[in-house]
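Fold it.
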Amino acid sequence: MLPSFGLDVSSIKAIVILSSVDVVFKTYLVAVLEDSISLIGGVPYVWHETSVRANLLAQDFDNAKVTEASGNDGTIEIEVIYDATP
């Protein structure tokens, strides 16, 4: 089970999301789906502020969920470096 957490995506300096199995990582703001990222097991999603590509987490969120369709158990790791100053 993923603990509930939220994030102001404009404060993200770097993010890594790694799942051990194929999953869909979904973010919500006030129960409305904001972003959805399909992750392949063992392949990290990595973004940092000097990346050429845009961050796939484009909207602030107050909750995140992970769905896995095959019924396999797995783990997910999320590491975020962010600017905590207002």
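Residues 21 and 41 are 4 Å apart (CA to CA).
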